[in-house]
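Work Package 4 report. The design task specified in the project plan requires that, given a folded chain encoded as structure tokens, an amino acid be chosen for each position. We show below one input record used in the internal validation round.
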């Protein structure tokens, strides 16, 4: 009987949501991995994240579903308001559970991050390890970190965000070789920046919206001004918030003269925007005139982040033994809340293919990278286009108002069709027991899932036959031999 192929050692740069989920999946598939994160410690930055049917079956497979339910609350609708608090018809997400078997749920990003981090053995993740260089030699990839250490593996995954060091180093090599498309050499464009944060625990008597069993997700659109404000309640009795500033035109990150606009998830440079947006109205459904400044005041300043809302899908996702996932290869506007979901879907597809990898040769690695991009790139482009269109709902002026009016007044049958289309991509991992589908609409088949599932079932069958043979009862004739 042939021996199973040796599993590749995977080096993951970036301990964001995509990198951590990939680590969770590799842990379950017994693929060795090491995660490097440039930050010295985890900070509870960010606002909240919406997780729904597109991911929750995988959470069941990983054994973290019940824990996730405990730290999240359902999201039944998103309500839009004019600055004078005139309401549009809310976007109704209650049909989602029937269509796909799970409801959308909102969770504060920091505690969701902590849930994923807790599944990673401490010795497999290294903080304070900023990557400076990468190289490939003798069928291996090497990472050099800022503490003068070097780490060797078979595969390098760049999960380090929109300003990915891995992508930059990879692209530098491809430029030198004349292999990088011109479009990938252009800077990340963006047309908005935002502040995000989460308050400390609030008194429900002062903020009655916190007593509701579902997320209060409200968006106040500033048509005559450059700002939009959104608020979301959480299971922790906190309010997550986001303030967007719409720029008059799309610009390039490296060319923008506002010094800190191209930083990711950091408090630097937030003070000016913090001061100029304090008087923006927000809707907390208690009949009171509320300003976002009071939420700012209840949020630790060091946990308020200022980020650029970049939008770009790169063409080059891999080369040699290096591959990119998440924002490192596709950065979409957050108006549809798909950035984190896309990164996690990348991790699922890549984990399935790594499980099914026949060998650690360069040829086999490049082949699975090709399959990964073939499966994920069209979906990333669709998500990019959807998010770009949805961002018009947050935009200023008459066009933004028109988009909101149309989007919130579509007939129910058409809205159900939109939801159904968005919920067909519900991947699972093929190397864990499959979760029976609960929805009325079947998910689309994922090629990577089918590939991993075929190997998993073959392995399980072989193990069953071997175990049965080992425990077979000997006959009297056998015993006399």
């Amino acid at each position: 009987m042939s021996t199973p192929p040796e599993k590749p050692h995977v080096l993951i740069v970036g301990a964001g949501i995509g990198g951590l989920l990939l680590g969770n999946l590799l842990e379950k598939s017994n693929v060795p991995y090491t995660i490097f994160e440039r930050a010295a410690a985890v900070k509870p930055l960010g606002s909240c994240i919406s997780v729904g049917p597109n991911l929750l079956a995988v959470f069941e497979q990983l054994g973290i579903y019940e824990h996730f339910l405990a730290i999240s609350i359902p999201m039944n609708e998103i309500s839009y308001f004019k600055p004078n608090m005139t309401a549009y018809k809310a976007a109704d997400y209650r049909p989602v559970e029937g269509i796909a078997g799970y409801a959308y749920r909102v969770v504060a990003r920091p505690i969701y991050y902590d849930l994923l981090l807790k599944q990673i053995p401490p010795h497999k993740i290294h903080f304070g390890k900023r990557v400076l260089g990468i190289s490939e030699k003798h069928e291996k990839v090497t990472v050099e970190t800022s503490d003068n250490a070097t780490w060797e593996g078979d595969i390098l995954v760049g999960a380090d965000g929109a300003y990915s060091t891995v992508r930059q180093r990879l692209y530098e090599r491809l430029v030198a070789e004349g292999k990088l498309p011109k479009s990938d050499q252009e800077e990340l464009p963006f047309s908005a920046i935002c502040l995000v944060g989460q308050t400390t625990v609030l008194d429900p008597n002062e903020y009655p919206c916190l007593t509701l069993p579902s997320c209060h997700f409200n968006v106040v659109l500033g048509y005559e001004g450059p700002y939009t404000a959104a608020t979301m309640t959480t299971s922790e009795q906190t309010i997550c918030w986001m303030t967007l500033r719409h720029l008059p035109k799309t610009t390039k990150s490296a060319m923008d003269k506002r010094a800190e606009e191209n930083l990711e998830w950091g408090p630097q440079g937030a003070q000016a925007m913090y001061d100029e947006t304090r008087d923006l109205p927000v809707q907390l459904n208690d009949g009171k005139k509320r300003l976002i400044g009071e939420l700012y005041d209840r949020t630790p300043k060091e946990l308020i982040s200022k980020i650029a809302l970049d939008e770009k899908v790169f063409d080059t996702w891999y080369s040699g033994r290096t591959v990119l996932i998440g924002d490192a290869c596709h950065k979409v506007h957050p108006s549809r809340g798909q950035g984190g979901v896309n990164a996690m879907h990348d991790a699922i597809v890549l984990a399935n293919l790594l499980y099914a990898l026949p060998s650690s040769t360069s040829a086999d690695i490049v082949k699975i990278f090709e399959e990964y991009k073939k499966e994920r790139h069209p979906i990333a482009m669709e998500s990019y286009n959807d998010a770009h269109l949805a961002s018009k709902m947050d935009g200023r002026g008459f066009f933004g108002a028109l988009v909101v009016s149309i989007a919130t007044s579509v007939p129910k049958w058409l809205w159900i069709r939109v939801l159904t289309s968005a919920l067909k991509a519900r991947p699972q991992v093929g190397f864990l027991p499959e979760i029976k589908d609960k929805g009325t609409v079947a998910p689309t088949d994922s090629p990577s899932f089918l590939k991993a599932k075929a190997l998993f079932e073959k392995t399980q069958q072989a193990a069953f036959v071997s175990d049965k043979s080992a425990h077979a009862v000997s006959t009297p004739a056998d015993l006399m031999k």
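The chain has two domains: 10-45+110-187+314-450, 194-310. Validation will be extended to a larger panel in the next phase.
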